[in-house]
Design brief:
Blueprint (H helix, E strand, L loop, with lengths): L13 H7 L7 E6 L2 E6 L3 H19 L11 H19 L1
Antiparallel strand pairs: 1-2
Length: 94
């Protein structure tokens, strides 16, 4: 059993820290869930970036060959998009 000190700190048992990969300096999220305190280590930033890159690649492959949705698009954004496309066509013709 762990005791909370006067500053609200607790010491996680070593075995639990090792299982969860919580080393000194590890940032943890502390939240309430169903009336209990939950302590969860934050994801490694490189893992988050890898997941994001994988999701972007998957989304890009799913959208390959499709046109972006234009109905309801902001008129300024639509004008900008059209200008960029026209510029790209002009460069291809050069």
């Amino acid at each position: 059993m762990t005791t909370v000190d006067s500053k609200g700190r607790i010491v996680l048992p070593q075995e639990l820290r090792e299982r969860l990969g919580i080393a000194p300096g590890t940032e943890v999220e502390v939240r309430e869930e169903d009336g209990k305190a939950v302590v969860e280590p934050e994801d490694d930033p490189s893992d988050v970036i890898s997941r994001m890159e994988r999701l972007v690649a998957e989304a890009a492959s799913e959208r390959a060959g499709t046109e972006p949705r234009t109905e309801g698009a902001d008129p300024v954004a639509r004008t900008h998009r059209d200008a960029v496309r026209e510029g790209a066509r002009n460069r291809q013709d050069e």
